[in-house]
Amino acid sequence: MELRKSGGLFFVLVISIFWFTTVLAQPQADLDAKTEALLKKMTLKEKVGQMTQVTLSEVSKKRPDHSFENVLDLKKLKSVIVDSAVGSLLNTGGAANTALNWQQMITTMQKLATQKTRLGIPVIYGIDAIHGSNYIKEATLFPQSIAMAATFNRDLVFNEGKITAKETRAVGIPWNFNPVLGLGRQPLWSRFWETYGEDAYLTAELGKAYIYGLQGKDGDVSKPDRVVACMKHYAGYSVPLSGHDRTPAWIPQRILLEKFLFPFEEAVKAGCYTAMVNSGDVNGTPAHASKFLLTDVLRNAWHFKGLVVSDWNDVNNLYGRDHIAKSPKDAVRIAVQAGLDMSMVPFNCSFARYLEELVREGTIPESRIDASVRRILKVKYALGLFEDPFPHQERLQWVGKPEHAKVSLQAAREAITLLKNANDILPLKKSMKILVTGPTANSRAYLNGGWSYTWQGNDEFYFPKSNKTILQAIRDKVGKKNVKYARGATVNKLDNILQAVKKAHSVDAIVACVGESSYCETPGNINDLSLPQAQITLVEELVKTGKPVILVLVEGRPRIIRPIVGKVQGIVMAYLPGPQGSKAIADVLFGEVNPSGKLPFTYPKYVNDFICYDHKYSEEYDVNRYDPQWPFGYGLSYTHFKYANLKLDKKRLKPDETLRVQVDVTNTGQRAGKETVLLYVSDLVRSVSPPVRQLKSFRKIRLKPGETKTVTFTLDKKVFEFVNADNQWVVEPGIFKVSVGNLSAPVKITE
What we know:
single chain, TIM Barrel, Rossmann fold
């Protein structure tokens, strides 16, 4: 099957060749020579060991509760690294560790690997640093990815990646299992907040920015402040039909190619070194068994040269969960033959044992093993691990720097999205008496969500007391005497609601902080997207007091709030804004920051209405309606912006030409503000029914009151391409509509 037309495929090939010959720290020939020389010296046991990844808890002593230190079990560690020749370890051992503890552990591991094994091959350690270095006690945490997407700011995402790389590599960890490039198009999904939203183009752009931040734009990951990125979860993981994590997705092949694979292809072009496989099942085939995904597309069509790692226990899941393998050993055969390079086993070395047996039996040729080990060694060489695998104590000062926290605060401020502001109730006056209420008002954990010091991110103990809750941040802003507090409800049940209502009578405004508790992956599965009834009841009772109510939504996915949207005066979407989020929320509520966030997803109005913004015309035809609570790209400001003078430099365009688009944007209000200028393209007629519009470019600008800026976009052939009925990328002649703001203009694509 042809994934791109010959010209597009040639372009991908050229980019891949360019990266691997000019971008890596060492010349390709030198890297190849070193790799081949080492590979020839390796025994089969050493090779399969390199393809094995074991979790930290498997080589550690029992960890006390509420500890920030992991203690290695040297006997177990030796058994894994020396005796079994394991080439990679991962995870955090139950909770975040101090930066110094990390350095000590990595040093011990690398000493064993480089000094006590026959060939001295260093291990590569991997970690899920998905919103900052979230498993290092002192490190900087950022808003979760769904909030970063709401900023529509490539530079902020790049800086997040850069800071995450610096702090992670400082402790000796060179491999980050991020970014998530799945599309957030199933809001029930418990990992929705790990995505960059529902749009393929936005996801690809922010994914590339993050990868460049981690790896550097030149891809030289041997530098001491860089790590290798891992695009995940390849591919189709994010849209399980049931909404439950790790359950099947059913994606038409054309849509899989056009939407769900697109961000990954762009990541390959950006030089991403590694990929992690989808934990689920796409169209009846578990991704870990999919030769189509792992070999036909990734290797043969895109010419990806990097390392492919499994997700947690997913090779064994082919046997124990998915029932497509006859035994655990058969599961290893299926995954490796499909194209897997490394197995996150993670609790033992069974993968290596089974794989060695399969080779000795003649079931898998050793040349197939060599191909994977070659990729693994090249990543280790590129990282400079053979030259210096050890962390350096003086780099501890890189972790948790105050200037890093300022970037996190800026990101939280730009993410916050104003969804309703009836009668300009916001910003609030600092002289007002305020009731702060709701289950998310006085929690640090809820601001961060999962992957925060612990896997579920739900233990308040681990969160630094210096990080303020929303309640504390509001008190800091207006003074403790002007702020009353009553929780009123937990996430799922009422909690002395009468106290909250009583206190509401004596204030000028109510800030009701509602949303979700912390969760991650399967434990976050839900069957109903509605905000729990206890929180709806709390808000409805507060509304009855006659005092203006402002909702602050602290949530990782869009919970249905239709019953109360019309009853409250203000609604602020905070997403999961991270440790600086409380200050950012208070800054917005009281007008010190003008909100500029835009929804990176469609916020549904009804439980079963999950239509995305790039839906088909038939979904707006006859009685059908695209009727969300708020559409993709929506977000208010404390000022107003006017669009004018949309100009296209051509009315007719050949497929190989570029189109220049200009539009004037004016701040017509009284405050400075930032505006995200979104450019959409609509294909009016084509051989496969087109979506009503698709995002194809965006720019974020800052305007003073009365200021006008001309924003220019340059669109190339890729903007007008789509996957046709033959699963080929094509541009068909016809009329297209370019839209920016409330303006639009046609352009004709000719032969």
